[in-house]
Amino acid sequence: MLDAGDSVPRPNVTASLYTLRTCEDQQWHLLLGSDLEALRGEQDDSPKLRVPGLARLFAGFSEEYRLTSEHFRAVGALAPGGLSNAWGAGVASFDARDLGGSPIPLSELQVSYRHVAARIGISGSADDDLGEFFGCDLPLQPPVALDSLTRRLYDRYKQKPRPSVRGEQVRLGIARNAVLSRPHAGRFGCNHCALCLYGCSRRAIYNAAFDLDALRARPGFVYQPDVFVENVVPADTGYRLNCRGRSNGQRFSFEAKRVILACGAIGTAKLVLQALRVFDHPVRLHSQPAVAFALWFPSQLGRATPQESFGLAQLSFMVEDLGETGEYVSGNIFSAALLPLREFVQRAPLSRLTARRALRLMAPSMLVANCFLSGALSDHQLTVRVDGTVHLRGAYRPEVRSRLVGLRTRLSRFFRRCGGIVVPGSFTLLSPGADIHYTGTVPHSLSPKRFQCHANGEVAGLPGVYVVDGAALGRLPAKPHTFTIMANADRISRKLAERWHAENLD
Amino acid sequence: MAEKKKGGIAASRIPARHMLITGASGYIGRHLVQHAIRKGWRVTALGRQPTKEASGFLPFDLAGWLPSLPLDAVVLIHLAADTGRSHVPEDVEIGTGMALADAARSAGMRIIFASSQAARPDAPTRYGRVKWAIEEVMLARGGTVIRPGLVYGGREVGGLYASLVEIVTRFPVLPALRWPTPLVQPVHVDDLCEAIVALAEGEAAGGRSISLGSERPVTFTAFLRAIGRYRVRRPRLFIPLPAWPIALGMRLVGKVMSSVEPFAERTISLIRLKPMETTADHSLAGVNNRPLENGLHPRGSCRRRKLAAEGAALLSYLTADRAYCGPVARYVRAIEQLEGGCPLQLPAIVLRLPWLLAIIERNRRPTSGHIKQSLDARLDIALAIAETSLVYVDAFFVRQARPLPVAAMQLVIVMASEALIQAGRAGGLIIRRIWSEQVRERKNRLGSNA
Predict the structure, then answer these.
(1) For residue A200, what are the CA distances in angstroms to A16, A45, A321, A367?
(2) CB contact under 8 A, A43 and B371
(3) pLDDT single digits (tens) B57-112
(4) Of B30, B34, B19, B190, residue with least CA distance to B112
(5) What is the 3-state secondary structure (H, E, C) of chain B?
(6) Which helix (H) or strand (E) holds A414?
(7) Which residue of A has its CA nearest to B339?
(8) N or C: which terminal CB in chain A sees fewer CB atoms within 10 Å?
(9) What 8-state DSSP symbol labels residue A205?
(10) What predicted TM-score, i.e. pTM, was given to this entire model?
(11) By C-alpha distance, which of A99, A64, A93, A66 is closest to A78?
(12) What is the mean pLDDT of chain B?
């Protein structure tokens, strides 16, 4: 296995975020960074991109892939575990509607969902209004406990009569996360320290690097870190992977009969298109148009800042029949109380002093939410150039804005019935690519053409090269997609292992 | 080797960079030695006693003792002068200067002579007359003459500046000399040394005189007041007094008390100083003249002090609490790392009344791209620092729950204050316009060395 990164240092903080903020004089090292990492870079990004401990995770991605972009915020990670070092851990299974015309057999995928869930540990509820939406028949731990404000919202929702078909058609349920609520495989359950953004010292949040540790213990598995694969070219024995050591710049190569690519939608696309010598030809890249907004519950004003909380999604929602295509959107709800207050102060149309004073009072009675639309509404393009650069052009389809108007109205009405207010001015469409859910650049196809792949991941025109990451997902519904990427990779890998084992026996 | 332009002087090759300095133990000399060493020169001090900063020493005396000059030296800087303590006869000091110039020329060295703004053939002081005479000798032999104005700043070891700082420190009431008003053209000792080394490194403007000092003269009283404000940091009262009667009176007293005579001579010299045109010469030397308020700071720049004051104001405004050292220090460091370290030059009234920032700030959403230098960007930086400082935790957290009516009333009061702030912003626009004009004027007047 060739891995571009080395490990990302994680802070070993065992106290809770509340204790850190109220007792630790040197808290700024963790929260701002000893080199002020939180104050560098784009200030309109997601807060997790400004976590000081993750600065190394995101550094160098654009430079290594020689990315240029136009209206697209490209984010990636060259580190063991990749973006799972900083993900939101939301998991959801795709159903037949989600797969649409994809050649991925649903039955095989469902088997893999179970395998993956058993390995990584997921928590949530199968019995609520989103149980079927997230997928049934999966080994689930009990959900991570909701904090009091989120619990109140959920209880209000359950008390209200279900919206009619002609109503808002919003369903609310417990979030399903790759986060342990109980010990599993040497990892510990969540203790509500609220340090999720800064690194989970209990390993409760799944990180693909955990599996790497297990793989490295297996005989026959060779792991080469700090290696950046610059290109894959056909050779007599199969393929030659031309590589460069990232820290020493040394160039070397590997030869292999078979190559499995899992570099992400952008990285894998670059290698495939270069190998096929497809230059200056734009390919489609999907991502989910995303919005963020704040919710305030006036009746809860006066609450104190909670001493315990959970920093990832606590509740999720789904809105059906958005627009004429029958598509849905889904989103997540998070606690706002322990988020940096400046994230709100900087966006409030008030003087900073007033905003700080007001939001200090309001934050314990606020929640924040995001909402993702279908990737079909994105119109991004990726182009590999002859000189080796990769250009990304981002765009949303024109109907996105009109969909959002209707969505905002429906969500506002829904949450008002649950006692909350969508804070005026907070409903914000993120810039293209800011969702960091990239797929579809080398998609599965029943009859794959150039730069597409078969159902088993083999790239058309590159026999022996397989794609097992998000590049292979040709459809991106408004649902967390990482679990499906993992299951698809599991599905493909099992089939390949069976076939190769049979070939060896022959 | 390709020629490299620097400040209008073509830099030639710098082979063995060996510099000789007379007067290396004096006020300017000590600073020059350190500056030259930092620039990679090997320095030999010529004087009565060795200095610990210079790597070499040769005995030299203005009374006529001249050593054999080392052949590998490329430049000789002549700073030594009799300021009244050695009682070297005028003609002897001038002769020594001439011998130095001849020796340097024979050895193929360039020579740079540190003269004075007071140098004139009819100078009222021995110092001014001797400087002028040696200038003539140096110029005739192709040397470079530097005429600095009133040299100040740095470590106060000897020199007129040290005396003035001591006087301003000791006396709360000082004379403001007028009728006529003496004018001075201060030059910071580090700027002077930088110019001297630049001239030494280039093909020195041989055979010409270079004047260094502030472009616009300042009154001597203003200079003393600046020492009080920026260096000693105590207010001082200035009583207007007629200059000529004071000087002549001191001269009469000096005939009886010899210790007063040098002050009398200096006062008369000060009154009769002629202004110098310095702009072109500063450009030639490639050196900017820093503002007095920067130069009088012990570090030579009050940039960090201004940043600290700025940070204190911003933190105090955002938290409605006083400023604490830790967060202020982190603010200074953040601005130095992220914004280039230039203070915003906030109006003094805003530094004293930070709540005025509510009127002049313009809150806007963070824009994509790097944070640009602006009040709003710095407020965001200060906000992040405040929020991650333990001392300000209660400005961001609510530790005790309170009843809904109480919390609602508090929120109403907060929002009502915002209404007043919004109303006050109309006036704030005027303040902001004035501030922008002040900054622009200051930049035009003093250059970009903020």
Answers:
(1) 11, 22, 37, 22
(2) yes
(3) 988 888 877 888 888 899 999 998 887 656 678 888 888 888 888 988 888 889 99
(4) B19
(5) CCCEEECCEEECCCCCCEEEEECCCCHHHHHHHHHHHHCCCEEEEEECCCCCCCCEEEECECCCECCCCCCCCCEEEECCCCCCCCCCCHHHHHHHHHHHHHHHHHCCCEEEEECCCCCCCCCCCHHHHHHHHHHHHHHHCCCEEEEECEEECCCCCCHHHHHHHHHHHHCCEEEEEECCCCEECEEEHHHHHHHHHHHHHCCCCCCCEEEECCCCCEEHHHHHHHHHHHHHCCCCEEEEEEHHHHHHHHHHHHHHCCCCHHHHHHHHHHHCCCCCCCHHHHHHHCCCCCCHHHHCCCCCCCHHHHHHHHHHHHHHHHHCCCCCHHHHHHHHHHHHHHCCCCCCCCCHHHHHCHHHHHHHCCCCCCCCCCCCCCHHHHHHHHHHHHHCCHHHHHHCCCCCCCCHHHHHHHHHHHHHHHHHHHHHHHHHHHHHHHHHHHHHHHHHHHCCCC
(6) helix A399-417
(7) A40
(8) C
(9) B
(10) 0.76
(11) A64
(12) 84
Q: What is the pLDDT of residues A377-386, one digit of tens each?
A: 999 999 999 9
Q: Residue B3 has what pLDDT?
A: 36
What are the structure tokens assigned to B215, written together?
């472009």
Q: Which of B330, B393, B398 sits opposite A304 (nearest CB)?
A: B398
Q: Which residue does chain A place closest to B378, by CA atoms? A: A39
Amino acid at A156: R
Q: Is B409 a residue whose pLDDT tops 80?
A: yes
Q: Which residues of B touch A38 (CB under 8 A)?
A: 384
**Out of A27, A342, A357, closest to residue B414 by CB:** A357
Chain A residue numbers touching B356 (CB-CB < 8 A): none
- Residues listed for chain B: 450
Interface test with A, best of B396, B399, B400 (most A CBs within 10 A): B396
A441 Cβ neighbours under 8 A, 6+ residues apart: A265, A266, A268, A269, A272, A283, A284, A285, A382, A451, A471
Q: What confidence tens digit (pLDDT) does each residue in A42-98 have? A: 655 677 778 888 888 888 899 999 999 999 999 999 888 889 988 999 999 999 999
Which residue type occupies B125? T
From chain B, pick out residues whose CB is under 8 angstroms from the CB of A302: 401-404, 406-408
What count of Cα atoms within 13 Å lies in the side-chain half-sphere of residue A465?
A: 30
The two structure tokens encoding residue A451? 């730069």
Out of A32, A35, A345, name the one closest to residue B388 (CB).
Answer: A32
Nearest-Å Rg of the Cα atoms of chain A is 23
Pick A352's closest partner by Cβ from B330, B379, B399: B379
SS3 A463: strand
C-alpha–C-alpha distance, residues A245 and A251, integer Å: 6
Interface of B with A in 340-369 (CB under 8 A): 355, 357-358, 361, 363, 365-369
Contact B388 A28 (CB under 8 A): yes
ipTM metric: 0.90
